Description:
Chains A, B: It is an enzyme of class 4 (lyase). The structure is a homodimer. Chain A is an alpha+beta fold.
Amino acid sequence: MSQLAQQPCEACRSDAPxxxxxxxxxxxxxxxxxxxxxxxxxxQLERVFAFRNxxxxxxxxxxxxxxAEQAGHxxxxxxxxGKVTVFWWTHAINGLHKNDFILAARxxxxxxxxx
Amino acid sequence: MSQLAQQPCEACRSDAPxxxxxxxxxxxxxxxxxxxxxxxxxxQLERVFAFRNxxxxxxxxxxxxxxAEQAGHxxxxxxxxGKVTVFWWTHAINGLHKNDFILAARxxxxxxxxx
Lengths: 115, 115
């Protein structure tokens, strides 16, 4: 598990500062499989996870859902046959907060855990 | 439950004919909450279901997932805080088959069942 995955999430309010471009570059090195995308005009972190079938994909969606509930921070999860696309961003600021990078790293860490 | 929801799905091969425009108009009357959209250039049925929070949204995603596994026909499910967007289409023909309308009607019927 990366060091980033072990950091605590901070409470995030609508006046919280988004991460700077320099911080994004530094944090992205910890989660190299994630892409920085614009979705509905909002910067988000995106990663596609591949699975053998729909059932395994849905099981992973539920794992990420549990992680989200524990953190009180929720992604968008696109579940399809054989893949799950995960999007992390912070609704309160319509952008990226350090929490999103922490949760992306924790999502990666789920892959190394038993289902 | 609509009559459509009670019809059996047919096996669908890559040479199966997609539904005609006239058939689409007739079938759409049975599932008035669904929109006909183009996603990645493929015609699909889309409906957004609203929920109180992430947990309830994810529970619905799992209900639709169970329905899909039983039918052997799988949608794309976008799970977010307070909503699930369901997309039905037929991968084998890159378009809409009658099965998609049947599964959309069955998805509607889930709302009237206990979770």
